[in-house]
Amino acid sequence: MSRQPCLPFAVLVLVLAAVGPAQTVTVGTGTINNTTTSFPAPYGNYWWGSRHQFLITAAELSAAGLPPGPIIALAFDVVQAGGASLTAFEIKMGHTTATGLSTWQTGLQSVHFSSSWTDSVGWNTHGFPSAFSWNGIDNLVIETCHNNNSFTTNAIFNQSATTFNACLVYRADAAGVCANNSISSGSFTPNQRPNMRFDFATVAAEYQENQPGASLDIDGVVGGAFQPAVTSRCVNGMATLNASSTAAGLPYDVFIDLLAPLPVTGGGFATPGGQVVNGSFASGTFSWLIGGVTVNTTIAFPAGGFTLPFGVGSLPGSAFGQMIVVDPANAEGISLSQPAGLAIVQSQSALPAAGPGGDDTSATFDFPTIACVAGYPFFGTVYTQFHVSSNGRVVFGAPDPDFSPTVAEALADNAFGGFWTDLNPHPINGSGNITVNVPAPGVVSVDFNAVIYHLEFAAPNTFSLVMDTVTGDYRIDGLSGTSLNPATAGAAGGDAQFLGISGGNAVGATDPGVTTLFTAGASGAPLLLTDMIYDLHPPGTAGTCPSLLPGTLNSIVFSPAGGTYVWAGF
């Protein structure tokens, strides 16, 4: 059953966004010209191929009159045509926070492609089959590229000077120019940019923006008409809600929902006066900050605004708040704030994160970034970083991609745990991949996915090394997914394998003198606190560690206990 709030908020009606006619703005009015041999020149064929990136600031776009929303075409002003047919001419666009170009920007959206493009004098317009939506906040990067197999001359453009490095150029008499990240330093003028004209379509806002009568944010994050304000915080973290209004002394409330803010085209709606409601009264998960089930009509907005620190909770998810204030200065009698979104995450990284991808390589990760935790305790030391070796182990203290385990090295190396042997995830002379994930809050899993023994393509290994930062447990999971090592190249009949954990030089690790036969349903503990707990397969013999031969062991859990670890097999 839907709940209908009081105040003018109750009469808000749905208004669909409507796209209006195309309009045009121009960025750059200069009359600087390149030559038939100089750059920048988007239609530059003095070399077989040329790749350009141009930076336009948000301030420049706004000053030119470009509103946030869809850009549907881009044009360049040609003074003298080059006349050559440019092969595979492509335009890409993207957002960036960079204030000058020194390296190629990545993650751009392809907006125009012509198998063959011939320029002409005047404005040369490139239509976009799929519009690029500028968020109105970030700077804009525009990339052009083509690649012929012969050269002629450059078209000459009207260009403008900039006070920052506004372009990058790479040109070469070769194939593959558009994928080459080199920069032809000294061959172009970096603080010069061709004049550009943008065609855009007017479109109603998707999200409400803050205004004097109602302003709300979480930790200062502000969005725009086409980009919601979303503050990302780790589970169990803290955040602060900040509110202000010019209508102090009048009733207000904050609509709170356990969802992400809804755009107009995705469930939100616009009021007759053009404000945007980014929530739904039918969601079943909303409430009012003050009024609870119904909107507050009596408690007044405090003079000077307010701040409200709060804990974000222990579970990942989304939420947002949007404030409504009775405001006589607004024609609708109310003012709405932006939807202040909150993303509660268990990792600040895009997951799964890619691990090492080459033979005998290592990748380093930070616990605060990957798992939203301060660190992980291992053999009495709390580590803020861990290093994933392509050879089957997680190392603490420093990277170590060594592929040939020995007992002496396990004693002297940095602390580690895993299934240490010669593995190879390289995409050419190896196979499989290694990823890092966070399957639960505070739990980090390093997953070896069908990674082969070096040059043994018929012997893939799938297993996981799991660090529980809450309990301190270290697990080696999925061991039933390992293979026998038949005869790795370079060894007489298979590489050495070390299965287990070692405190290494961090604790002055000791060798118990005997290996441990890990079996499902069994458990054990070392004699000395510093003893390594491990099974070993010697080099030169095809096979695997004795613990893995029966094929019933799937997991070993090492749990901290009194300064050392106890183990249990499953």
Class by alpha and beta content? mainly beta
| Mean of pLDDT | 91
Q: What is the helix tally?
A: 4
What's the Cα radius of gyration? Answer: 31 Å
Tally of extended strands? 40
Account of the 3D structure:
The chain has three domains: 8-16 and 206-345, S-adenosyl-L-methionine-dependent methyltransferases, CATH 2.20.130.20; 22-201, Jelly Rolls, CATH 2.60.120; 353-569. It has four helices and 40 strands. By secondary structure, the chain is mainly beta. The strands form eight sheets. Strands 24, 31, 32, 33, 34, 35, 37, 39 and 40 form a nine-stranded antiparallel sheet that branches. The two termini are 49 Å apart. The chain is flat, with a radius of gyration of 31 Å.
How is this structure best summarized?
With 570 residues, the chain is mainly beta. The protein has four helices and 40 strands.
Write the layout of secondary structure elements.
Blueprint (H helix, E strand, L loop, with lengths): L21 E6 L4 E2 L15 E8 L1 H7 L4 E12 L4 E12 L12 E10 L3 E13 L4 E9 L8 E6 L5 E6 L19 E3 L1 E6 L13 E4 L10 E6 L3 E7 L7 E6 L11 E2 L5 E2 L8 E3 L17 E6 L5 E10 L7 E3 L3 E6 L7 E2 L7 E5 H5 L4 E3 L2 E3 L1 E5 L3 E3 L11 H6 L3 E5 L2 E2 L8 E8 L2 E11 L2 E13 L5 E4 L19 E6 L1 H4 L15 E2 L8 E5 L18 E6 L2 E6 L1
Parallel strand pairs: 14-23
Antiparallel strand pairs: 1-12, 2-9, 3-8, 3-10, 4-7, 4-9, 4-12, 5-6, 5-8, 9-11, 13-15, 15-20, 16-19, 16-21, 17-18, 21-22, 21-23, 24-32, 25-28, 26-27, 28-29, 29-30, 30-36, 31-33, 32-33, 33-34, 34-35, 35-39, 36-38, 37-40, 39-40
